[in-house]
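the two lines:
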Amino acid sequence: MFHTRTGQMKALLRQWQLQSMVIPGILWMFIFCYIPMLWLIIAFMDFSIAKPMLESPFVGLKHFRDFLTDDRFWRSIRNTLGMSSIKLVLGFPIPILFALLLNEIRSLRFKRTVQTISYLPHFIAWTIFGGIALNWLGEGGVINQLMMALGLQDRDILFNSEPQYFWWITFFTDTLKETGWSAIIYIAAIAGIDPGLYEAAELDGANRWQRMWHITVQSIRPTIAILFILAVSGILGSNFEQIFMLKNNMNMKMAESLDLYIYNMGLVSGRHSFSTAVLFARSIVALGLLLLANQSSKKLTGDSIF
Amino acid sequence: MKSKPVRPILAAMMTVTLALSIAACSSNSATKENMPTAAPQAEASPEPQTETKLNAEEPAWKLDTSPVDLTWFVGANWYAHTWGESLASKYVTEKTGVNVKLEVPSGEANEQVTLMMTSGKLPDLISMGSWETAVKKLWEGDHVYALNELADKYDPYFFKVAGDGTLKWYRQENGNTYGVPNDSYSPNLMHETGMTAANQTFLVRKDLYEEMGKPDLSTPEGFLGALQLLKDKYPEYKGQPISPFFAQGNVPYGMTEYLQNLLAVPHEKDGKVYDRITDPDYIAWLKTFRTAYERGLINVDFLVDSDTQVEEKTNNARYFMMIREWTGMSAVNPMLAAGANPDSYYIAVDGPQNSKGESAKLFPGNMDGWMVTMISKSTKNPERAIRFLTYLASEEGQRDLFLGKEGETWDSAGGKPQLKAEFAEMLGSNIEKLEKEYGIMDTYWMMRNPVIVNQWRPEKAPVIKQMEDFANAQADIDSGIYKGLDPLGDSDVAVAWSRISQNWEEVLPELITAKDEAAFDKVFEGFRSRRDSYGFAQVMEYRQTELDARKAKMAE
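prediction for all of em together
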């Protein structure tokens, strides 16, 4: 133990030029992620922007009581969990599959083209992409035309006015927009695999499926595990911009996620303490989920963040 | 060597970046050169000196016309005009030395200002919707100057031009006034001129309406009958389905406030604030809309369409009838009238009416006006800021911004300024060019005073005037006092109201899509009991107190 630690220190000192590059990142995180945590205290106050912070009265758990007794809060929890679960169960494997398939393509030019095209939508802002999606879903939109041409429906359906479709709309639009981008990290992990492994397997007579499963997938397993743990801890989060663009008065009961709830009930009326209280509670739950996922992953696969 | 084709592109990109940064540098240095001369001047001249020059009869901006930059936040994310390109803005900058840098919020104005308050850095001038919660916070948090104090110190001429009425209207309990409104109308003025700024109208597409034999839309039966006729005979226009109905601003505006005004639902009964949502006439009409939906005569597109979708349908005249502000149609209507089907524009007609057949009672303009403009305490040039506002509020400033430069955009005819004919024409044909290149008329409306500028407006195109006249005739001039009685901000009663009104936005679509009247009644009962549990009683109390206070203020 002692030996390895001094060994690590030595290695660290030897690489100080490289290691120092991480300092800006740490500083950034400290300033923007850790210092703001001090302000969590306003969750227990009646904070007003117009007054200095410490002059605001302490109110204990008032804001926590406020949202825990609000039926709309629980509805937003249900919606967030619903949308996140679909994303997690169905959405999580998609970029992995995409990366695996891409990896099997022989033509380098074709592979590059597909990869570039697939991650381009990521750079379109949700305000624009959402507008495009709304047109697709609207009267006379692509989806309606397609469904009618296939004989699956006989008149236009305003998909966005039917609450029951909303979770699926968020899932499909998100998949369409982000698959290519999310796959990049897997593609990078795959690129790091020693080609010698494939050659050896080929000599041993492994076919393509076997090579994909026993080499590619096994090699990127730690990456998958880490991303999965992070995805689980983010289950109470949602894509605010996406939902904000796609929601309307008719699908609100299925669309209001926790983020949107905080926005509607907190920020719109300038209730900063209330918003902070909800966010605080959410962070605690997220931390719990993270620890849980981390432990399970450690037990099941041996891979974990810490 | 694979990277070879990349290089020329890279080189080109770097050149562009470099060129841009050089351009940015040079424009920066140009303004910065002026800064040092302006700032020390303001500091160097001690107050007593300026005081001797101050004169309540003479605008003070003339004392110092050295160049100065003022940032001006306009709380409307759709506001797309710039300062310094157009004729009017150049003229004003030349005259007063004030170069304005316009800023608009990227999202919601309220949030952006709240954010800026937290950081303690505010733009020099701020214009915001008078109803926004952030306005109250700016005032209470001492983030903006009391205009009366600044005026006492730097430019007493302000009191002459700001109008005693508006100053008094916005005076706070501590005796200070922090903002000047634009588009503020006093009831006296409206009675005098007949210009009421009433905006909410019921519009129909002229050709369809006339072909259908001008059906009566004021009763539920007539309304449903017309929709049926529309569905049977005119389901399509230019190959696309007609959208029979549109309500602007969705639930809280078009389907609630505007519709209630069309039905002349009273605001108070025997001195008590009236709960308009439960009015029997209003409920009856909501049920009419439900029936129309059930029979497939209307769709719910007006409840779900995004702004872009609405705009597209409007521009293609795909709506048959609309509850909509006529000002929003002042660009589209002339365009439609000049198009291939010259009769496919919109006209104002009598829309839904109450069971007594009374004509609509539309909201007129009011004392609150639209936006209020304030001077933030972050400004380094409070002196120049108040003088600039005074100038803009004066007749001279109003004229410079609204009409532009004499000889170029307007001429004096019989002692009265008159917009040149070509620009009056451009107003109808190419308003974008007018606003971009000349910046006159309603381009810079932040300090617009209708009392002064309306006399200079050219006669409107008939297709616009019809809607305006109709609205003016139905305006309920004395109802301005009822506008915005609801509690705002983060107090308990405001939170209660916010929960209630947000819930209503979800409930109204449920009412319209309810499968039968029994279901409608049930949803509505559910809303009422939820409303009570959220604290509706306190909201009504608040409205009553607010109304009483306003009445007292008006009586002063």
